[in-house]
Design brief:
single chain; 526 residues; mainly alpha; Serine Threonine Protein Phosphatase 5, Tetratricopeptide repeat; 3 domains; two-stranded antiparallel sheet; two-stranded antiparallel ribbon; 27 helices
């Protein structure tokens, strides 16, 4: 559709233009409509002088275009109130629907035009006529944030319990789009705060690596209430309105993520804290992880503090991994972190500020994690092996060992490392920042009395990890704390050998020259 100009709000009306014209070809092919309808065609062009002349000459005000659109549809689309009024006075059908179910009232709601919506309602427009998809004018007003239109529709008898795709209501749409004024209007007319979307099952991955087929699960999806939508999108104002209207602060879908967990995992500290202040359970873990684990994923020290102050268990282990989209950079819990404690996770993510908070609230810094995971296919025969890293302390975790991106047998896993590089769950800062925070995390963990020479099942220590990654500051600190540079891992490699390889696993990109020189200066030998 070609237009010379577009009035204010035209971006909203683009969707209507597509709805009005989308089935034009089908309508013409069916032969049920004339190809040339002067009145609606003139209205489509916004040629209002021609429209008035045609009405005065007795043109059929209900003439249909190929997709069933009338002149009144276009008057509503262009928000031309005067012409719309003239058409209605001349007998235009206010409930005419095109082939997609679009009515003039829907167009007014899409535009957020309260005057047009009210004029149509006064002329008898049905507020509950929906699109073929199930979307009602009230849902549309909720989606675009048109509170005045929503109020007019509600006063005219719009049903608040009607649902569109997957059982979503107008209230859910208003919350999902962060429109608290619409939420307030809907709640003022008795809209149910405990309505849930449909529930279905879906096969999901629990790691983002497409090459790893073992980690898939069939999990329930949906079952969301308006409060869960508010937690997911971070709509604090709507969350307050919903709780005041009786929403359960510990609400959760079949998958088990409480509203507080959803808010924390979505990175919305303000909503999570509000729910805690309203009495939400800080230790809800029916999904297999708590809000505290989610806050650590985001390295959100402020939320960690708030959760701990509200009674979150600083030693609660991760019970299961979380779903993740393939090849994504979502914040997720990898299967190899199952069983890890908050302190261990904070060490693994190099978050020393969170480690301190946890320790101050009773976390056990000596807790040892035992990661197990399937690294992937080992050969053309599709053999599988489950790797158990064995004891992994917080010092080792801070140095880069434990679970995801593990230091595993170089000789056995070269092909995996080459064919399927593991992607990070977040965008890391530059190397100097990484090394600085790693050193701080390693130092804090070691100060809690953890033995720096503990080795995992592959014989790798924290020093092996730091040397293989080329973090000189960490290497120097560990050696000063008694880390032995002569210890060989299960493949017979010392920290110096790994520094010469320039990698923790795989073939590496060449030696870390400064690390090699440092280790030799500290007494390491070939």
């Amino acid at each position: 559709m070609t237009r010379m100009t577009r009035p204010l709000g035209a971006r909203r009306r683009l969707a209507l233009g597509g709805a009005l014209l989308g089935w034009l070809t089908l309508g013409l092919a069916a032969g049920g409509f004339a190809a040339d309808q002067p009145l609606p065609d003139a209205a489509q062009r916004a040629d209002w002088s021609v429209v008035r002349t045609l009405i005065e000459d007795g043109a059929d005000v209900n003439a249909l275009q190929g997709d069933g659109a009338t002149a009144l549809h276009w008057a509503a689309y262009w928000d031309e109130l005067e012409v719309a009024t003239l058409l209605m006075r001349s007998g235009a059908d206010v409930n005419a629907a095109n082939d997609l179910g679009v009515t003039p009232l829907w167009a007014a709601a899409e535009n957020g035009s309260a005057p047009m919506a009210q004029r149509l309602l006064d002329a008898g427009a049905d507020p509950n006529v929906s699109l073929l998809s199930g979307e009602t004018p009230l849902m549309t007003a909720a989606r675009v944030g048109a509170a005045d239109v929503a109020r007019a529709l509600l006063e005219a008898g719009a049903e608040t319990s009607m649902t569109a795709g997957r059982g979503q209501t107008a209230l859910m749409w208003a919350v999902a789009q962060r429109h608290p004024m619409v939420v307030e209007a809907l709640l003022g007319h008795g809209t149910a705060v405990d309505a849930r979307t449909d529930v279905w099952t879906e096969v999901v991955k629990t790691t983002p690596e497409p090459w790893n087929p073992e980690y898939v699960a069939e999990l329930p999806q949906g079952g969301y209430t308006p409060l869960l939508f508010a937690a997911r999108v971070g709509d604090l104002a709507s969350a307050k309105l919903l709780v005041a209207a009786g929403a359960d602060v510990d609400d959760q879908p079949p998958y088990g993520t409480s509203a507080t967990v959803v808010a924390a995992h979505s990175g919305h500290r303000d909503v999570a804290v509000y729910l805690l202040e309203q009495g939400a359970d800080p230790n809800a873990a029916d999904a297999g992880y708590t809000a505290l684990h989610a806050a650590i994923l985001h390295k959100d020290a402020g939320l960690v503090r708030d959760l701990l102050d509200h009674g979150a268990d600083p030693n609660a282990p991760v019970q299961t991994s979380t779903p993740v989209r393939r090849d994504s950079v979502d914040f997720y819990l990898h299967p190899s972190w199952t069983g890890a404690t908050p302190f261990w996770l904070a060490a693994r993510f190099n978050a020393p500020d969170i480690m301190r908070l946890l320790l101050d609230h009773g976390a056990d810094p000596l807790a040892v994690h035992h990661p197990k995971y399937w690294p992937g296919s080992l050969s053309v025969r599709d053999e599988r092996v489950q790797v158990e890293e064995g004891s992994t302390t917080a010092v080792m975790a801070a140095a880069g060992l434990g679970g995801r991106n593990p230091l595993i047998s170089v000789d056995r896993m070269d092909r995996i490392a080459e064919s399927a590089p593991v992607r990070s769950t977040r965008r890391e800062p530059d190397r100097d920042v990484v090394e600085r925070t790693m050193l701080e995390a390693v130092t804090f963990a070691a100060e809690q009395g953890i033995d720096v020479n503990v080795a995992n099942a592959d014989g790798n220590t924290a020093l092996h990890a730091a040397a293989g990654a080329g973090y000189d500051g960490v290497v120097e600190y560990l050696v000063a704390q008694g880390a032995r540079a002569d210890l060989e891992n299960a493949e017979g490699r010392t920290p110096l050998a790994l520094a010469q390889r320039g990698a923790l696993r795989g073939r590496g990109d060449g030696p870390h020259e400064s690390t090699v020189e440092l280790l030799r200066r500290l007494g390491a030998s070939e």
